[in-house]
Amino acid sequence: MTVELGISEILATLPHRYPFLLVDRILELEPGKRVVGIKNVTFNEEFFQGHFPGNPVMPGVLVLEAMAQVAGVGLLGVTPDKEKKLLYLSGVDRCRFRRPVVPGDQLIPLAAHLHGHAVQQDPAVLRHQASRVGLMGHKTSPRPGGRTRGAPVPFPPSFHSH
Questions:
Q1: Measured between alpha carbons, how far is 81 from 140 in angstroms, rounded to an integer?
Q2: What is the distance between the alpha carbons of residues 130 and 67, in angstroms, rounded to a whole number?
Q3: Residue 71 pLDDT more than 90?
Q4: For 113-116, which contacts have Cβ atoms below 8 Å and span 24 or more sequence positions?
Q5: 6 and 25 in contact (C-beta within 8 Å)?
Q6: Taking Cα atoms as reference points, which of 103, 117, 100 lies closest to residue 42?
Q7: CA 121/CA 14 separation, integer angstroms
Q8: Nearest Cα to Cα of residue 13 among 94, 98, 70
Q9: pLDDT of 154
Q10: What angle do CA 61, 63, 65 make, to 5 degrees?
Q11: Is the dihedral of CA 18, 60, 23, 11 positive or negative?
Q12: What is the mean predicted confidence (pLDDT) over 85-93?
């Protein structure tokens, strides 16, 4: 069974907040198996002010982050006590950007296969062209006690062990 999630459900799942929440809607979700999300890219995004003036391009690392956040919705959706966990992007293999992401694009990241904390990422569709990521690794870690949303979060010591 697939479901669609709006921004309220996304905010209840992910700890990210403006300006770093890069998911606008989940179009399809099969928890633990498959997730399709969308990011509407607008000229109002803060990063376009400096990347690049006169030629706005979404930074590639933010394209990857949007893909990771969509995958995170699918992974955290089946994680017990998700409100007590943080999900970290721990690696990216075989990434290639086919063309720049510019204002007006719709970034549709598709995490086709969710296996534990490994994600086989299918292309992100950008005006019928794609950015492709082979494999994204994710790690969960307990959220530091008493942390409020928006407070800085240090990387857990186990994050650096790989």
A1: 11
A2: 12
A3: no
A4: 113/33, 113/34, 114/32, 114/33, 114/34, 114/35, 114/71, 114/74, 114/75
A5: yes
A6: 103
A7: 19
A8: 70
A9: 46
A10: 70
A11: negative
A12: 81
First to last CA, the chain: 36
CA dist 148 → 16, 19, 66, 75, 141 (Å):
12, 17, 23, 22, 16
Strand 3-5 relative to strand 118-126, pairing: unpaired
| Residue 51 is among the residues annotated as catalytic for this protein | yes
Over residues 104-128, mean pLDDT: 66
**Distance between CA atoms of 31 and 11, rounded to whole angstroms?**
16
Q: What are phi and psi of 86, to 5 degrees?
A: -115, 145
Catalytic one of 51, 115, 117, 162: 51
CATH of domain 3-161: 3.10.129.10
Token pair listed for 36: 């399709």
